[in-house]
Predict the structure of L-type lectin-like domain-containing protein.
Amino acid sequence: MAAEVRWLCFVALIAFDICLVLASAPFKRFEYKYSFKPPYLAQKDGTVPFWEYGGNAIASAENVRIAPSLRSQKGAIWTKAKTNFDWWEVDVLFRVTGRGRIGADGLAFWYTETKGAYDGPVFGSSDKWVGLGIFFDSFDNDNKHNNPYIMAIVNDGTKEFDHQNDGTTQLLAGCLRDFRNKPFPTRARIEYYMNTLTVLFHSGMTNNEQDMEVCLRVDNVVLPKTGHFGLSAATGGLADDHDVLHFLTSSLHPPGQAPTAAPAAPRVSEEEQRKLSQEYADYQRKLDMQKEEYRREHPEAAGRPQDPDADPDVWFESDSQRELRQIFTGQSQMFESLRELSRKLDEVVGRQERALSLLGQLGTGGPAPQQLGGAPGQVQVGDTIRRHEVDAILNNQNTILSTARELRTFIMEVHSRADAILQAQGKGTGQGAGAAFDLHTLAGELRDGLNALKRDAAAQRTGGPPAGGCPDPPSCVPPTVFLIAVVVQLVIILGYSMYRDSREAQAKKFY
Ligand SMILES: [Ca+2]
Ligand SMILES: [Ca+2]
């Protein structure tokens, strides 16, 4: 009964936890004004929308090289606008690569009240910042062989970064992770929600996005209400390329406080609308004219991709091509399904292990749980019966059964023999009646005799010498009496023999 109650409590607790987790999961909204990602990361003019970069930083369509692998380079990129949300999550995909076994100096992620410098002393940006800095420190300044290192430092604008000790005197928390020269891009997910700062890190050893692990988690972190996001990097005597492939920001909102929809676009007046339509029509006409002009100037280009009749291969596919494409699509789908299956299998295995470990804890935590009443299918928890034990029990049962069978046959045999004897006795009573009668009377006589003897003995005990005098008959005959009796007997025998002799002598005389 106690085991059932414990189980019910356990299940209820898990359900409650799940509800709690689901209910407390924050609402997440992507913030494009605080993000950048390829393709078209940088515009043709080299600018990154909503961002400003400087120093030795270079932005391309695919990434932002915050500091290149040259000596003493410094660069940074900062959001133009300040944030307008309390809690956030930033996903930074980056690569730190260099030809050297050791690199320098490192990369920094910033969330600060004001924008920092583009060529400052702390990993390429300003010292004495107000807010958060997360540093990916490649170079081991204090020679403690503990770099590359990831750490978080919150500054109120008074502290100078302790380069001599690699910031170890100031950090909130950190973790030793190598992020240089990895086969796949490394990734950091920095979450600031309800004053808890969490940094997850992906080592770049796999291309599975889910392989993130916790680097640090700190509670009660207080950051400026609003601020700028930034990235900076620096090189020294040694140099790495510091490339950031994407920077994705999401605002986090507690359940029940979902953000209001973006303000509706200002209404366009009818006049403006007509003007815009006119502009669009003009643009369309101009484009057509330009196309016509191009065709006139390049007659050899005419009839190419634009014209399906000129090159059917570009526009149409043959049967075999279609078949190949279908096979390819089918295989891709199969591959996707397999991957999904594999993922689910992993999940199931994980859950099973968790459940087993919990059961193990339950088993060791208290008295061995009993089998649940009313659920005959359930196995005993904690100490399950094993196969060989079941086999042993079955063998024992078989032995017991065969022994019982042998016993039954034996008893039946005895019974039949007893029957036979009884029958034989029943027949024999008529024939041997005389002998049996004799025996019976003899036994009766013997019993009577014994009874008489008993009576005599009792009488002698009550009427004889007082108790304690001489209870044993042999000791009741004193030696003198015994001798007298012997002498009397001898005298009688002698007298009798003498009497007989004299009688014989007299008889001889008469003959
Ligand atoms: Ca360092
Ligand atoms: Ca160090």
